[in-house]
Design a protein that fits this description.
This protein is about 75% helix and about 0% strand. The chain is an all-alpha fold. It has one domain. A two-stranded antiparallel sheet has the order 1-2. The termini are far apart.
């Protein structure tokens, strides 16, 4: 009971601060709060820590050199304030993994790893996108590696990709600190990078053609990361 009192207090505090500082809409904060309970079920407070680090880092890199992004037409709408769809896109699968621990022993044993991989992918995508457009020197279409315009869906840079790997590594660091150091840390970083690259491929294809929006692409990149990390754990 005491644990859930602390959990509820932490979640309400996080929701309130995110709305107060205009980083989430009210509905997005409520959505995040609900998802947080399921993520806690799957990975406890370390899961919430990974979620928080992703969110805070995402807010930070989105705000980084905002004026420059705005001048170049690369800034997000509403100063990057997240909406419910964006919250579901990034944290929906981690919450599903946590929810499935009620019903499936596979998820009961692997939810923390899956949650870490999902947030590693979401982190890589956000960091590479928001910082790549600032620090990237050459930009290429991921399908044919021909030079392209920065900021377009499916366009990547070496600098942005490497910064994305660093973002995934931060989530892997949290996971490994809590659950012990092993090759699973490498698997998390690899899965996060795979999800990020899948995001770019989907952006260059289905998103450009209007079949998927950005939120759906973001959700699918976490799916790729979750599948990849499970494959690495049980097959490789």
């Amino acid at each position: 009971m005491y644990t859930y009192f602390i959990l509820t207090t932490v979640i309400i505090a996080g929701m309130s601060l995110s709305v107060w500082f205009k980083k989430l809409t009210l509905l997005a904060a409520l959505t995040g709060g609900i998802l947080s309970f399921f993520i806690f079920k799957g990975a406890g407070f370390p899961g919430l820590l990974m979620m928080t680090i992703f969110f805070v880092t995402g807010v930070g890199v989105t705000s980084w050199q905002w004026d420059k992004k705005l001048r170049n037409g690369l800034a997000e709408d509403d100063k990057g304030r997240r909406k419910p769809g964006q919250v579901l896109a990034n944290a929906g699968l981690p919450a599903i993994a946590g929810l499935m621990t009620f019903y499936n022993t596979f998820f009961e044993g692997n939810a923390p790893l899956i949650i870490a991989a999902c947030f590693a992918s979401a982190m890589a995508d956000t960091v590479s996108s928001e910082l790549g457009i600032i620090y990237g020197s050459r930009f290429y279409n991921i399908l044919n590696f021909k030079k392209s315009q920065r900021g377009l869906n499916g366009v990547v840079s070496l600098e942005g990709t490497l910064l994305g790997v660093a973002g995934s590594s931060l989530i892997a660091l949290v996971y490994s600190t809590v659950y012990g150091w092993s090759l699973l840390a490498v698997a998390i970083v690899f899965a996060g990078t795979a999800g990020n690259l899948a995001d770019s491929v989907l952006g260059a294809t289905l998103e450009r053609k209007g079949y998927l929006n950005n939120d759906r692409v973001n959700f699918l990149n976490t799916c790729v990361a979750a599948f990849t990390v499970c494959l690495l754990k049980y097959v490789v």
